[in-house]
Amino acid sequence: MELIYETTVTGVGEKAMEFLDQGMFIIFRDDAPEDLKEFAIIHKENNLLREIEKNNTLKMGNKEFKIRCVGSSVNKNMKELGHITFRFDEEEECLPGSINLEKKHIPEIKIGMQIEIWG
C-alpha cells in the first residue's frame, strides 16, 4: 500500500467529541478561524501526496476503516484548507466535503495521534 495522506492531531476542540456520538468528526488545519476550531480536530501539517479515492484505507491509531465514498470537494478542500468531514455511516453517496467510511467504533482522538490514508 502507498501513503496518500498523513497528519498529526495538534488539538481537539471543546465540542469536537460531540460529533463522535453522531458517527463523524471534522478536521481543520491549525490556521482555521477560531470559531470553527472548537468543533474540530486540529492538525498542523497537511500532507496530501495524491488524490483520495474510494476503497483507500483510513488509519487512526491502531484502527483501520475502508473508505466507502469520497465527496467531490474532498481533495480540493484537503489541499487548500486541510478541512474534511469523516462520516462513519457506510453510505455510498457522499456530501461534497465528506469521506464516508465503514461503520466501526471510532477510537478516542488525542493530541499526537496520526491520521493517515493509504491506497
From TrEMBL:
Gene3D superfamilies: Phosphotransferase system, glucitol/sorbitol-specific IIA component
InterPro entries in alphabetical order: PTS_IIA_glucitol/sorbitol-sp, PTS_IIA_glucitol/sorbitol_sf
Pfam family, one: PTSIIA_gutA
Gene Ontology terms: biological process: phosphoenolpyruvate-dependent sugar phosphotransferase system
Modified residue annotations for Phosphohistidine: 43
GO molecular function: kinase activity; protein-N(PI)-phosphohistidine-sugar phosphotransferase activity
One GO cellular component term: cytoplasm
PANTHER family: PTS SYSTEM GLUCITOL/SORBITOL-SPECIFIC EIIA COMPONENT, PTS SYSTEM GLUCITOL_SORBITOL-SPECIFIC EIIA COMPONENT
Designated name of the protein: PTS sorbitol transporter subunit IIA
